[in-house]
Amino acid sequence: MIKVYGHGPAFGLPDPSAFVVKTLVLLQMAGEPYELVHADPRKGPKRKIPWIDDGGRLVPDSTFIRLHLEDTRGVDFDAGLSEAQKGAAWGIEKMFEDHVYWLVVVERWLDRANFEKGPRIFFEEVPAIVRPLVLGLVSRQVRRSLDGHGIGRHSPAERQLLAERAALAVAQCLGDKSWLMGEAPCGADATAYAMISSAICPLFEGPVRRAFEQHDNLVAYARRGTARWFPG
Ligand SMILES: N[C@@H](CCC(=O)N[C@@H](CS)C(=O)NCC(=O)O)C(=O)O
Question: Does ligand 1 lie within 6 Å of residue 17's CB atom?
Fold first, then answer.
């Protein structure tokens, strides 16, 4: 059975990492049973979660996990899509991963109240004596990543605008369809479902959550995904 290295359920989500949730959904779409194993991202081949262990072969990164499943299991996550739909699906997926994800990181890590309710749990395993030190180090690292990405250099008002435009873009693409590209989920739905559920996670408050919650079709979409992939 494929082992998925992630965090494990937290914040009322199957995993606090949307990339891990995406991977779990892809595995379900592929009909592959899996075991979710709690892991330290620093121990992974790319020092991030998720990675999988498929019979001894380690595959890090949710996109390469998808490609691995397509190569080794003969699954086509985009079966039935037109060329234009395949292109749009990949584009929407990468907007979530390289843009919306970072807006969510700002909401969870830089907002003090959200941090206390959320990411602080990641430090519970660190011995109490060094916890403040590690917490300070990791928080600085997160700020550096946000700065390097560029999202951290925008003002809160500019980030809010970007969150609203991203949510609007997805709401416009989805329209009244059940899934991004029609009445059956495609590969990008694994990402969109994971990222939208993460953005509207009720534990956190902020502009990203409000931006996505403004769209009834996105809220209904996230509920549809949870009922389908994580009914428990
Ligand atoms: N491109 C990667 C992104 C994975 C990712 O950003 N994982 C985050 C958790 S959501 C992580 O492990 N961060 C730890 C770190 O950056 O040190 C994927 O698609 O899997």
Answer: yes
Check pocket membership of 197 for ligand 1, CB cut-off 6 A: no
For ligand 1, is residue 62 a contact (CB within 6 Å)? yes
Distance CA 180, CA 192 (A): 8
133: part of which helix (H) or strand (E)? helix 131-149
CA separation for the pair 166, 98 (Å, rounded): 12
**What pLDDT digit, counting tens, does each position of 131-185 carry?**
999 999 999 999 999 999 999 999 999 999 999 999 999 999 999 999 999 999 9
* Residue where the block lists tokens 């494990």: 8
Residue nearest to atom 15 of ligand 1 (CA): 48
pLDDT tens digits, one per residue of 206-222: 999 999 999 999 999 99
Tell me the C-alpha distance between 74 and 163, whole Å. Answer: 36
Å from CA of 141 to ligand 1 middle = 13
Domains of the chain: 2-73 (3.40.30.10), 83-229 (1.20.1050.10)
Q: What is the pLDDT of residue 28?
A: 98
Average pLDDT over residues 80-89: 98
Q: 54 in helix, strand or coil?
A: strand
Answer yes or no: is the C-beta of 28 below 6 A from any ligand 1 atom.
no
- Residue located nearest, by CA, to atom 11 of ligand 1: 48
User: Cα-atom radius of gyration of the chain, to the nearest Å?
Assistant: 17
